[in-house]
């Protein structure tokens, strides 16, 4: 039965003659106010279900926090959105028209989904500005890169981002010499240079001081509206300080969704966090 | 600390400025001291010394080529000697054809070693090498294309680190074995030698020696400037990014394999040019130049001089080779031990090489 299905899919007319396949609109269409649709997604690793019939919708310009115990599948969910992991079943759409499951990692990145990993990776020997310069949306082939000069416009853009992430004073500093928190901001700045529509931020405040956390909260809040931002975080105080909508993941699916207060008073959530 | 992003314009660092000034002074002075100062004067520079210096300069260019890929791109090539040797062979083939009927066998159509092997016809791949322009083209193309194909195969399959270094060793070793074979048509283990003249100039004359020395100095300066331009460009910063965080660089949209491929091929071309200038000065090219040990030695020069500075590579190549010439004269057996010991000492106490030491001194002063 399964082989027959595969055969049918493979022999579909639009699969055989790719000119019959509807052209994927690579322009992001957010006309319905939703930027990301994850529907009925499941992933299994060696028999272990990391994501289990997950449904998640993110609105345009929204700042969404995702919480959940260790191993709930938060990072795996981001892997799926960015094309790093392919789900076994389900659909993932970016706006109305872009099917994420058909695209490669770099394609997805260039369409405007930026991701910050748990561990900050900046280019240590380069200066803060140079890090931003490399991340900038530009023609990234070899020859144009060799000949590239910064235009006045691009300089302005770099200055804007430096201001947003609060690193103007450190512009000429070696990125390797930044503090842990500053590296995290620089990495967010590098994402911003690519003018993303959707930002995925995995555990941004781990290892930060309280002051740094406050500044990170300000930064993420200032990004919402212009971008959609999805933040995965364990620190409840931090989540409370930025979120208006929180999604709780548990064993690979959504357990609860709502404001921080609603979620915290939800008996199932209490059970998972306290009773589990 | 750089207060701004460097653009495509050529900006020289201090070490590079000093190096280029010293190179210019030497290039002007040495010919004068050789040609215009009488032989019995203590200031006279012998032709032997001129040629020795010219040879060192070609080594320096080779070291710059290795520093470009190792220091800035993180590819530890242990096979750059192969590109050097291929450039050398291309030049050697031209010089062989220039001998004409002045060989021992007096055969106007075939080099001596082919007559000796009882060959009656020039192999197809020797055609064209009687033309200088064609040979010059091959000096650039053969190492360049080989590096390109090699890089295309290895970088695309994401071979990196030690594995890549080992494959580069295998490359030069395989070439050495191939060139040792008489049937290959490159003179077997004797290689190519007994050269007479280049572009009509007698290779034994002082003037030609001086000319080759100046050509080597110009090639070194040009190669240095080209590499400096590259590492100062945005592409240079991408190279450093690849060196330190390859997958991150790929993730922000750069075609890592392409960047590696072009820079590696460019570096091989520089090595080839160095080899082509080396051969007429030493008067011979044989398969020994492909020896894996040679390629490792180049890396040691760069490590001792200081990685990722370019001028450090020059410094390392000159110092080590001077030391080699000196020591092999005094105590021939000690050289390899001295080199190994020096390498260990530098890695332990001067991870930035001599250039790093100079920079620290400069910053402290
Ligand atoms: N590539 C993989 N192969 C096998 N198992 C995996 C893989 N990736 C994730 N998992 C498993 O899937 C589960 C979900 O992992 P995930 O990293 O998404 O959790 P998380 O919610 O991000 O947890 P944390 O809060 O600790 O970061 C874990 O049990 C993990 O061990
Ligand atoms: Mg995680």
From TrEMBL, chain A:
<dbReference type="Pfam" id="PF00005">
    <property type="entry name" value="ABC_tran"/>
</dbReference>
<keyword id="KW-0813">Transport</keyword>
<dbReference type="InterPro" id="IPR051120">
    <property type="entry name" value="ABC_AA/LPS_Transport"/>
</dbReference>
<dbReference type="Pfam" id="PF12399">
    <property type="entry name" value="BCA_ABC_TP_C"/>
</dbReference>
<dbReference type="InterPro" id="IPR027417">
    <property type="entry name" value="P-loop_NTPase"/>
</dbReference>
<feature type="domain" description="ABC transporter">
    <location>
        <begin position="36"/>
        <end position="276"/>
    </location>
</feature>
<dbReference type="GO" id="GO:0005524">
    <property type="term" value="F:ATP binding"/>
</dbReference>
<dbReference type="InterPro" id="IPR032823">
    <property type="entry name" value="BCA_ABC_TP_C"/>
</dbReference>
<keyword id="KW-0378">Hydrolase</keyword>
<keyword id="KW-0547">Nucleotide-binding</keyword>
<dbReference type="InterPro" id="IPR017781">
    <property type="entry name" value="ABC_transptr_urea_ATP-bd_UrtD"/>
</dbReference>
<keyword id="KW-0067">ATP-binding</keyword>
<dbReference type="InterPro" id="IPR003439">
    <property type="entry name" value="ABC_transporter-like_ATP-bd"/>
</dbReference>
<dbReference type="GO" id="GO:0016887">
    <property type="term" value="F:ATP hydrolysis activity"/>
</dbReference>
<dbReference type="GO" id="GO:0005886">
    <property type="term" value="C:plasma membrane"/>
</dbReference>
<protein>
    <submittedName>
        <fullName>Urea ABC transporter, ATP-binding protein UrtD</fullName>
        <ecNumber>3.6.3.28</ecNumber>
    </submittedName>
</protein>
UniProtKB/TrEMBL annotation, chain B:
<dbReference type="GO" id="GO:0015658">
    <property type="term" value="F:branched-chain amino acid transmembrane transporter activity"/>
</dbReference>
<feature type="transmembrane region" description="Helical">
    <location>
        <begin position="210"/>
        <end position="231"/>
    </location>
</feature>
<dbReference type="InterPro" id="IPR017778">
    <property type="entry name" value="ABC_transptr_urea_perm_UrtC"/>
</dbReference>
<keyword id="KW-1003">Cell membrane</keyword>
<feature type="transmembrane region" description="Helical">
    <location>
        <begin position="18"/>
        <end position="36"/>
    </location>
</feature>
<feature type="transmembrane region" description="Helical">
    <location>
        <begin position="259"/>
        <end position="278"/>
    </location>
</feature>
<keyword id="KW-0812">Transmembrane</keyword>
<keyword id="KW-1133">Transmembrane helix</keyword>
<keyword id="KW-0472">Membrane</keyword>
<feature type="transmembrane region" description="Helical">
    <location>
        <begin position="132"/>
        <end position="155"/>
    </location>
</feature>
<feature type="transmembrane region" description="Helical">
    <location>
        <begin position="334"/>
        <end position="358"/>
    </location>
</feature>
<dbReference type="GO" id="GO:0005886">
    <property type="term" value="C:plasma membrane"/>
</dbReference>
<feature type="transmembrane region" description="Helical">
    <location>
        <begin position="298"/>
        <end position="322"/>
    </location>
</feature>
<dbReference type="InterPro" id="IPR043428">
    <property type="entry name" value="LivM-like"/>
</dbReference>
<dbReference type="Pfam" id="PF02653">
    <property type="entry name" value="BPD_transp_2"/>
</dbReference>
<protein>
    <submittedName>
        <fullName>Urea ABC transporter, permease protein UrtC</fullName>
    </submittedName>
</protein>
<feature type="transmembrane region" description="Helical">
    <location>
        <begin position="162"/>
        <end position="180"/>
    </location>
</feature>
<feature type="transmembrane region" description="Helical">
    <location>
        <begin position="82"/>
        <end position="100"/>
    </location>
</feature>
<dbReference type="InterPro" id="IPR001851">
    <property type="entry name" value="ABC_transp_permease"/>
</dbReference>
């Amino acid at each position: 039965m399964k082989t027959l299905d595969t055969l049918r899919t493979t022999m579909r007319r639009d699969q055989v003659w790719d000119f019959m396949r509807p052209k994927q609109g690579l322009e992001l269409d957010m006309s319905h106010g939703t930027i990301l649709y994850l529907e009925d997604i499941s992933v299994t690793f060696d028999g272990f279900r990391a994501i289990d019939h997950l449904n998640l919708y993110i609105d345009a310009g929204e700042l969404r926090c995702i919480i959940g115990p260790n191993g709930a599948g938060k990072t795996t969910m981001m892997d799926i959105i960015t094309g790093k992991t392919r789900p076994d079943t389900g659909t993932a759409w970016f706006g109305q028209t872009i099917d994420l499951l058909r695209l490669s990692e770099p394609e997805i990145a260039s369409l405007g989904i930026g991701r910050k990993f748990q561990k900050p990776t900046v280019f240590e020997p380069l200066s803060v500005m140079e890090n931003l310069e490399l991340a900038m949306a530009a023609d990234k082939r070899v020859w144009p890169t060799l000949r590239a000069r910064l235009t006045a416009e691009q300089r302005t853009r770099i200055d804007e981002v430096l201001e947003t992430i609060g690193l103007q004073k450190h512009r000429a500093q070696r990125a390797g010499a930044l503090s842990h928190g500053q590296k995290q901001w620089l990495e967010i700045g590098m994402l911003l240079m690519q003018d993303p529509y959707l930002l995925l931020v995995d555990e941004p405040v781990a290892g930060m001081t309280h002051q740094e956390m406050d500044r990170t909260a300000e930064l993420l809040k200032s990004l919402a509206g212009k971008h959609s931002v999805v933040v995965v975080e364990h620190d409840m105080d931090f989540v409370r300080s930025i979120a208006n909508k929180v999604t709780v993941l548990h064993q690979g699916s959504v357990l609860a969704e709502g404001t921080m207060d609603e979620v915290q008073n939800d008996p199932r959530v209490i059970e998972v966090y306290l009773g589990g | 600390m750089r207060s701004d992003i460097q653009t495509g314009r050529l900006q020289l660092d201090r070490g590079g400025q000093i190096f280029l000034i010293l190179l210019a002074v030497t290039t002007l002075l040495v010919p004068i001291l050789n040609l215009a100062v009488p032989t019995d004067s203590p200031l006279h520079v012998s032709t032997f010394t001129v040629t020795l210096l010219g040879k060192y300069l070609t080594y320096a260019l080779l070291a710059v080529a290795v520093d470009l890929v190792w220091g800035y791109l993180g590819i530890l090539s242990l096979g750059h000697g192969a590109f050097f040797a291929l450039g050398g062979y291309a030049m050697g083939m031209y010089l062989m054809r220039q001998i004409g009927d002045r060989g021992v066998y007096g055969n106007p159509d075939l080099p001596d070693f082919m007559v000796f092997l009882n060959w009656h016809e020039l192999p197809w791949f020797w055609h064209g090498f009687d033309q200088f322009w064609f040979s010059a083209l091959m000096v650039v193309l053969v190492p360049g294309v080989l590096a390109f194909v090699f890089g295309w195969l290895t970088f695309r399959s994401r071979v990196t680190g030690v594995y890549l270094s080992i494959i580069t060793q295998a490359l030069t070793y395989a070439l050495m074995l191939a060139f040792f074979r008489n049937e290959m048509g490159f003179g077997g283990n004797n290689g190519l030698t007994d050269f007479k003249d280049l572009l009509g100039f007698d290779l034994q004359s002082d003037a030609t020696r001086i000319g080759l020395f100046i050509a080597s100095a110009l090639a070194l300066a040009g190669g240095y400037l080209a590499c400096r331009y590259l590492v100062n460009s945005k592409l240079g910063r991408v190279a450093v990014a690849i060196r330190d965080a390859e997958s991150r660089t790929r993730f922000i949209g750069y075609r890592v394999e392409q960047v590696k491929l072009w820079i590696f091929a460019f570096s091989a071309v520089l090595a080839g040019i160095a080899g082509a200038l080396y051969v007429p000065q030493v008067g011979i090219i044989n398969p020994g130049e492909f020896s894996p040990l040679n390629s490792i030695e180049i890396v040691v020069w760069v490590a001792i001089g200081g990685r990722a500075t370019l001028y450090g590579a020059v410094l390392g190549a000159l110092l080590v080779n001077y030391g080699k010439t000196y020591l092999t004269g005094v105590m021939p057996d000690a050289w390899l031990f001295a080199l190994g010991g020096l390498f260990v000492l530098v890695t332990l106490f001067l991870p930035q090489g001599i250039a790093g030491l100079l920079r620290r001194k400069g910053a402290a002063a």
